[in-house]
Amino acid sequence: MSNPPAALQKAPHHLQADDLLPESLLDFLGCPTPPAWLEWAYANPDILLIDHAQCEKKAASTAMSLLYRYVDQPLLLSKMSQLAREELLHFEQVVTLMESRGVGYHHLTASRYAEGLRQHMRSSDPERLIDLLIIGALIEARSCERFARLIPYLDEELAKFYRTLVKSEGRHFEDYLLLARQQTQAPIDDRIALFVACEQALITSPDTAFRFHSGVPR
Ligand SMILES: [Fe+2]
Ligand SMILES: [Fe+2]
């Protein structure tokens, strides 16, 4: 990372990040990433990369589990198959970056984030799947937003990589949302609102340890 932490408070960086992000994605999220999280990320560059690798692997694994469970949905199968391949490619790219930077890959505890969202999931289909797809859209949207906001503070190699991720995670957000809406004729806006509010609370409240999807420092 190249800029001093003091620079994190400067508004022009946020303007730069917003320029990279589609309006539909910014409207979907309940809040922007707090500057305190960006400072926390700046102070933990190794954990940022290790947990990022974990997130890519989990994203591929979630998509794979949908491939097993919903074999009667052609659009879901093609979108999730493509998504799983892309997430595994991202995983490989992060691990390669870690190796070239001498960052050792070790196990990290998961953040509270995904479980904090999944605990509100309804238990039987099609409601369960709708909720799972909304959560998928939120995780992709937040990841995309965080990559964009981190870019101004990264060295050129990492910034270039994260710019490519902003594009693909933004597309994954759209795909998950499309699949969620496709599951029912009824509006799903109340479920989206519930998960957006829950996600916002997880992002803005104090958290125990720095992770890619953590809240803010205590
Ligand atoms: Fe990814
Ligand atoms: Fe993704």
Automatic annotation (TrEMBL):
Q: Which residues form the signal peptide?
A: none
The cross-references to Gene3D superfamilies, in alphabetical order and at most eight, read: 1.20.1260.10
Q: Which CDD domains match?
A: MiaE
Q: Name one GO molecular function term.
A: tRNA 2-(methylsulfanyl)-N(6)-isopentenyladenosine(37) hydroxylase activity
One Pfam family linked to the record: MiaE
GO terms, biological process: tRNA modification
| Record's protein name | tRNA-(Ms[2]io[6]A)-hydroxylase
Which species is this record about?
A: Vreelandella azerica
- Organism lineage: Bacteria, Pseudomonadati, Pseudomonadota, Gammaproteobacteria, Oceanospirillales
